[in-house]
Fold this sequence. Notes:
Elements: H1 3-10, E1 14-20, E2 25-34, E3 37-47, H2 54-72, E4 76-80, H3 88-107, E5 112-115, H4 117-125, H5 132-142, H6 154-169, H7 182-188
Parallel strand pairs: 1-4, 4-5
Antiparallel strand pairs: 1-2, 2-3
Helix pairs in contact: 2-3, 4-6, 5-6
Amino acid sequence: MSTEIQTAKSGLPYVILGIDPGTTVMGYGLLRVQGKKVEMLAMGVLELKKLTNHYEKLQRIFARVLSLIDEFDPQVLSIESPFFGKNVQSMLKLGRAQGVAMAAALYRDIPVQEYTPLKIKMAITGRGSASKEQVADMLKRYLEITQEQMLPQLDATDALAAAYCHYLQIGNPSIKPEYKSWKDFISQNDKRVKK
């Protein structure tokens, strides 16, 4: 049994760092878990659009992930794995961004878990075809995030979704969503949903 699962079962607090890798925008989100309670610690983005040197972007990603680890002391990095696309150059750049974020975590002896976008969407919404907006909206409800805390970049909520997906995977069935669809969630949470 992993140390993280032992910590989760013991009820001791632990932190999950979620990363949505990218060389234009990297999203990050952090969750604090204690027993059955889960709360958002932080979420944000690292803007890399203005940088033209790809290696400088990778250096900034590495440095930012290290700073998040040093500030929040996570027990695990949960990262979205790249999906396969037709543009080989884009895939290569995305893979490098993911690898650098993973290397930063491993440099600090933080274990890494990868989840596909499909698995993350399924865990959060119950639908693999859910939009980024639907994922963000579900997280808002699960984690009681206020509108003021939401960011315009969905990379931040994608990263938070990676962290929440990992939380669900390590065995907290009492909070795991049991919805077959968006419609199913609405019907079971009538009082929480604004119409």
